[in-house]
Amino acid sequence: MFVKQYIKPILLILVPVLLIGWAQDVYELKIPKGFPKPQIPEQNELSNSRIELGRRLFFDKIMSRDTTISCASCHKPELAFTDGLKVGVGIRGQKVARNSPTLTNVVYSPYFLMDGGVPTLEQQIIVPVQEHKEFDFHFSLIAQRMQKDSIYVQLSKQAYNRPPDAFVITRAISAFERTLISGNSPYDKFTYQNQINALTASEKKGKDLFFSERLKCSECHSGFNFTDYSFQNNGLYVNYPDSGRMRLTNKEEDRALFKVPTLRNINLTGPYMHDGSFNTLEEIINHYEKGGNNNPQKSEKIGGFKLTNNERLNLIHFLESLTDSSFINRPDFIGQY
Ligand code: HEC
Ligand code: HEC
Predict the structure, then answer these.
(1) Residue 71: CB within 6 Å of ligand 1?
(2) Tens digit of each residue's pLDDT (9 = 90 or more) over 312-328
(3) Burial class for 187, CB neighbours closer than 10 Å (0-12, 13-18, 19+)
(4) Whole-number Å distance between alpha carbons of 11 and 118
(5) Would you say residue 121 has pLDDT above 80?
(6) Which residue, judged by its Cα, is nearest atom 41 of ligand 2?
(7) With a 6 A CB cut-off, is 220 part of the ligand 1 pocket?
(8) Where are the domains of the chain?
């Protein structure tokens, strides 16, 4: 009788205490209104210590052989995780083959790189680490450097219960990347947050053009993240020096196809296209207006159209309304490198 009487109050106190202790290292992804819930791999659930470890590594030059560059050298937060260059530049000033893409909303990507050859974020990290033109380095040597730093050793233990190694490095950086969610631009406020004044009249007109049957932009740049993740040729060249998805599949039908990129934060992420060949949004719109250059792979959706000067301006204003200033100013990005 006496015992029974006390079980309930004890449980009422004990259960929340246990839950809070457990919850301390649980990270709750903030998902913007209108966005689906992203899939997080079971073997790398998000936690505060994992994300913090990954964040530190992302900005740390110990990742590269000569300690001159980090992931953030090519993926700078203030440029929505691009670098403002035509193509990425690795250690010893070496140029890589392609333009550094934004990491905005990478958690939603079903595969990575412009040819789609890498299935997970964890595996993607192997590329810049080992690539001679990027970090030109080895996970075991990065781990050795981490061993000399007590914060890394402690975080590594807390996050994955093991000392720094390739397992820890690839998983922690991926956990951080999965938090790079951007969904609070004026466009989002207007579309998903019921703020009818978030877009100007010109931006609204540009939005209607973007989603129109006449321009067809949204037939590839579709959905909440402005991409259907398909591989397409948008008529950049007659002959492409870069064989695109064919590099992966070796199939002629995949020649010069590239993953449709997101357009979020597009005003911050120039130069544009896989090779950084366009500098401005206006040049891009001119390209689509003319219907691009003919080649056997060019999508039938790239057929050209005619815009008035006002319409062109409205479309540019709409693209600019996809900039999310709260994303690039996230406190955990500031002053990191
Ligand atoms: C030298 C510049 C450079 C460095 C350093 C670099 N990247 Fe990249 N990153 C690129 C380029 C260029 C691409 C596009 C490559 C391609 O698609 O073939 C890319 C692609 C990616 C992608 C794929 C994005 C997508 O949408 O498919 C991710 C994720 C990424 N990088 C993360 C990282 C991380 C994490 C690091 C550090 C471990 C890093 N990058 C270091 C230039 C760089
Ligand atoms: C057939 C599918 C398709 C259609 C339709 C399409 N695009 Fe694209 N878009 C792409 C692909 C693929 C790329 C990347 C090409 C590359 O890297 O060479 C791209 C690139 C872009 C870029 C540069 C992105 C970056 O980060 O470099 C912008 C901006 C853009 N498109 C805007 C538009 C607009 C505006 C329209 C409508 C007028 C449009 N697109 C129609 C497939 C399409």
Answers:
(1) yes
(2) 999 999 999 999 999 99
(3) buried
(4) 48
(5) yes
(6) 217
(7) no
(8) 42-182, 186-326
